[in-house]
Design brief:
about 170 residues; mainly alpha
């Protein structure tokens, strides 16, 4: 969006917060921020500068042009959510985390290394390979049950992956 478009959107809507790109065409983010903040309505609008600049001076320039805060790109979603909560006083209600193959796999991958794999028998690994290649979820679950109890996360991941595989097959 160009700076002029940003001004038009701001004028048409009752925006509480704007994530303002600072290096946008026509009217840059600094000028758009100054124009917005020069009005009574604009004083009530939170403007967060978004920039890819790594220079610390950029922060000072953005804040001096009227921005209420500053975030460098690339940014994580969590940072933006925290800034919104900070400036607008909102809080978030999250759904309880459901364990899926992808959420468990992150935890398992930190544990899963060559040392762990070396503890598994070649015969067992070969059987798992063949069962996975054949998309045989029943056989995979049977093999998972054979894992030693010292590998609960690995077992859980394998079970979730095989259930995903089975559902995709259906």
């Amino acid at each position: 969006m160009q700076g002029q478009e940003a001004l038009e959107v701001w004028q048409a809507w009752e925006l509480h917060l704007i994530g303002m790109g600072m290096r946008i065409p026509v009217i840059n983010g600094y000028e758009a921020t100054k124009q917005i903040k020069s009005t009574t309505k604009g004083q009530a609008t939170v403007i967060i500068a978004l920039t890819a600049s790594t220079l610390e001076e950029e922060r000072a320039v953005a804040l001096s042009s009227g921005c209420d805060d500053f975030v460098r790109k690339p940014f994580r979603e969590q940072i933006i959510l925290e800034k919104i909560a900070q400036h607008l006083g909102v809080s978030y209600v999250y759904e309880p985390e459901v364990l899926t193959a992808s959420t468990v796999s992150e935890a398992v991958l930190t544990e899963l290394n060559s040392t762990v794999l070396a503890q598994l028998s070649l015969e067992w690994l070969t059987q798992v390979h063949h069962a996975a290649k054949a998309v045989n979820a029943k056989q995979l679950l049977k093999l998972i049950d054979q894992l030693p109890p010292i590998k609960p996360l690995l077992s859980m991941l394998c079970e979730l992956k095989s259930i995903d595989l089975h559902l995709k097959k259906l």
